[in-house]
Amino acid sequence: MEQYIEVLQKNELFLETKEQEISAMLACLGYSIRSYPKGDMVWNVGTHIESFGIVLEGQAQVVREDYFGKRSMIAAIPQGGIFGEAFVCAGIRESPVAVVAGQDTRVLFLNVDKLLTTCESACAFHNGLIKRLVRMLARKNVALNEKLDYLGRRTTREKLGAYLLAEYGRKKSNPFLLDINRNELADYLSVDRSAMSRELSRMREEGLIDYWKNSFKILDFEGFQ
């Protein structure tokens, strides 16, 4: 577990926590680690869940499927990211979404009831963990509202423009790298992959953006208005 301490320190749940403290926390909370080859299901819709996951290696994708099996990606969870915490904290014990390994992936699972219940030894870190978990849930709510803003845009160009500007603001650099590939981006924005590619090409031809694979550069900010 020691090799993943630095990964956990990047997660908001363990932010500014020393290595020895993280080891003590995990010993108190109990945990399990599971490995998934790329494409394997971490959770299916309806899977019984009592724990949330932290990605130690690879990437996990939270996806939803409609009645006809069409898949839409809700979020891509990178190394150090967390998933499922909102469901288990809300008392939901059957997952309403699927989670897929986007790469060869290892996941640390923590039981939410153990985290939210102060242990007999009254570990000093428990209150801090709970506060950070509440903060994370609030941030996830903000991110959900942001996605709803993208989906509320009328055209593929408007959705792409809003997303790219938001990523530029988050990364604070130009050019910047997207954390997801084109297929995943199309799923996230709920647009057709081919139509999105055509729109990106038009935006480049018009001098709005330039890109190479997952690297994007905004050339004309005024043109996004």
TrEMBL record:
Gene3D superfamilies: Jelly Rolls
SMART domains: cNMP
Keywords of this entry: DNA-binding, Transcription, Transcription regulation
Occurrences of domain HTH crp-type (ranges): 154-222
GO BP field: regulation of DNA-templated transcription
InterPro entries: cNMP-bd_dom, cNMP-bd_dom_sf, HTH_CRP, RmlC-like_jellyroll, WH_DNA-bd_sf
Protein name: Hcp transcriptional regulator HcpR (Crp/Fnr family)
